[in-house]
Amino acid sequence: MKDDNLIDMVLEDKKKLSYNVMFIKLKSKMLLQKKNELSFFIKVYNHNGIPDYLNSLTIGESVWISNPMEKLEYNPNYKKILMICGGTGITPMLQILRKENFKSKFTIISCNSSLKDIILSKDIINDDLSVFHVISKKEENNQINNTKYFIDEKSKTYLKDINKIKKYDFVYVCGPPNFMNVVSGDKLPDKTQGEIVGLLKEMGYDSSNVYKF
Description:
Number of domains: 2
Radius of gyration: 18 Å
Strand content: 15-25%
Distance between the termini: 11 Å
Helix content: 10-25%
CATH topology of the largest domain: Rossmann fold
Mean pLDDT: 70
Low-confidence stretches: 1-33, 146-152
CATH superfamily of the largest domain: Nucleotide-binding domain of ferredoxin-NADP reductase (FNR) module
CATH architecture of the largest domain: 3-Layer(aba) Sandwich
Number of strands: 9
Number of helices: 5
Shape: globular
Order of helices and strands: EEHEEHEEEHEHHE
Strand order of the largest sheet: 7-6-5-4-8-9
């Protein structure tokens, strides 16, 4: 994504905390209701981390935002793109999905622990998307289409089955460390991409057609 679409956000040191976090600047019509307004999706985990600190702020308090920082420029010429997301890992995908007049066809595999953990499931649906939800906990009253339940090792088999639908030109992956290790391998400590391992390596993908957020 281009650098004018990304910002690096530094929290104000009100509680003697120091954070440096990469946030995706979402330019979609859904998110920007007013001119010059920027919205973020923040999930509170109660782990005494960044989301919890942001949630504790009241209206009128401030955070510091630095200049944009480029991570990846989106290539609109890819015909078929796969996005594999674990939990809130869907959020960096939104900017691409909300681009107007893109030529690509997208398949999204959204993995969550339970139905209540799925975010933005309705907002990302359109004719150019194929969305699969993979849920680890069996629940009653399932009202989401294309939902598959799995437990532990079965998840990897199911993800392979979805990927067999077609060969993709490019794959984006985002999720927690354990999820990344299974799917593609996590980024290195210095935040560089690192080697492609796991599921995607087994299916023939390499660093030329995979990006880890």
